[in-house]
Design a protein that fits this description.
CATH class of the largest domain: Mainly Beta
Protein name: Phosphohexomutase
CATH topology of the largest domain: Jelly Rolls
Strand content: 35-45%
Largest sheet: 7 strands, antiparallel
InterPro entries: Carb_Metab_Reg_Kinase/Isom, Man6P_isomerase_Firm_short, MPI_cupin_dom, PMI_typeI_cat, RmlC-like_jellyroll, RmlC_Cupin_sf
Keywords: Isomerase, Metal-binding, Zinc
Number of helices: 7
Structural class: mainly beta
Distance between the termini: 25 Å
Helix content: 10-25%
GO molecular function: mannose-6-phosphate isomerase activity; zinc ion binding
CATH superfamily of the largest domain: Jelly Rolls
Order of helices and strands: EHEEEHHHEEHEEHEEEEEHEEEEEEE
Cofactor: Zn(2+)
Length: 320
């Protein structure tokens, strides 16, 4: 079977905090004024990606992995995760502040939800003037102090905020309390998990007047009360893969493409490219595939030699 770069139908999610940037900036086919998320590659239950191009069009990612696990996932990834796709790729548009939240680690998520934990990273594609996000505590906290501030509705007083701009990256390890702020558009790379513990939602209500569910008890054991250094700094050397994050769950590189880059890989892992600025082409086996800002493409592990051409900023993600 001749493999090729795979793109998928975006899975669009309305959110109380969503907006329209997924369409105006990333060209997603949204039809709602409150679309908060575009799930680009997913095997979360009931949200499994469907191939949008080529010979496999209409097939689910799970079906492809079932039939061709080593070719799609890679030999190392297949050996470690079986026929599970271990990562989830999204774009998020925060028109309003997201809830203050955190995610459980692998151990808690397995025990409580039979799921992976949710380690994730954010790459800022665009940020309005004065946009900020919340990540961690200003100073080391404790369960008692955290609960007191939560009850007094002063939680924001003890949380750390960061001003953001295009190109900023944040690594959110499990247990880190955080919230994406209004006016920020991000690419998100995370473990395959949809488990979020929401601890404060600014007392918002939906169109029916209902507040969203909070998960205060679940969050207590999962929360990291220490301060964190979440922001990641990285090189931007043109036409090379500049390492941004290398953790046990994924490696993310940043490629400032200005011309061409020959890529040679082994068959250990799939690779995903997220085009966060500009446009580029991928040349493989004499065929040319074109991508623009907002596109996400899965390179099956069996594709080991190809070339990237163009002027673009590209995130390159794989499992080391």
């Amino acid at each position: 079977m001749p493999f090729y770069p795979l793109q998928f139908e975006p899975i669009l999610k309305e959110r109380i905090w969503g907006g329209t940037k997924l369409k105006t900036i990333l060209n997603k086919p949204i039809t709602s004024e409150i679309t908060g998320e575009s799930w680009e590659i997913s095997t979360v239950a009931n949200d499994v990606s469907i191939v949008a191009n080529g010979d496999f069009k209409g097939k689910s990612l799970n079906d492809l992995i079932e039939a061709y696990p080593n070719e799609i996932l890679g030999t190392k990834v297949h050996a470690k995760f079986g026929k599970q796709f271990p990562l989830l790729f999204k774009y998020l548009d925060a028109r309003q502040d997201l809830s203050i939240q955190l995610h459980p680690n692998d151990e808690l998520a397995q025990k409580r939800h039979n799921s992976f934990g949710k380690t994730e990273m954010w790459y800022v594609l665009q940020a309005d003037e004065n946009a900020r996000l919340i990540v961690g505590f200003k100073e080391k906290s404790s369960p008692e102090a955290y609960l007191a501030h939560l009850e007094n509705k002063t939680l924001l007083d003890i949380l750390d905020t960061k001003a953001v701009k295009t190109g900023d990256v944040f690594m959110l390890n499990t247990g880190t309390i955080h919230a994406l702020g209004a006016g920020i558009l991000i690419a998100e790379i995370q473990q395959t998990s949809d488990i979020t513990y929401r601890v404060y939602d600014f007392d918002r209500v939906d169109a029916q007047g209902n507040k969203r569910e909070l998960h205060l008890d679940l969050a207590m054991e999962a929360l990291n009360y220490n301060t964190v250094e979440a922001q990641c700094f990285y090189d931007r050397t043109e036409n090379v893969s500049n390492e941004v994050i290398n953790c046990q769950y994924f490696t993310t590189d940043f490629i400032p493409l200005n011309g061409n880059l020959k890529v040679n890989k082994n068959n250990d892992s799939f690779t995903v490219y997220m085009c966060v600025e500009g446009h580029f082409e991928l040349v493989y086996n004499g065929k040319t595939y074109s991508y623009q800002k907002g596109d996400t493409v899965l390179i099956p592990a069996s594709m080991t030699d190809f070339q990237l051409n163009g002027q673009a900023s590209v995130l390159e993600i794989y499992i080391s």
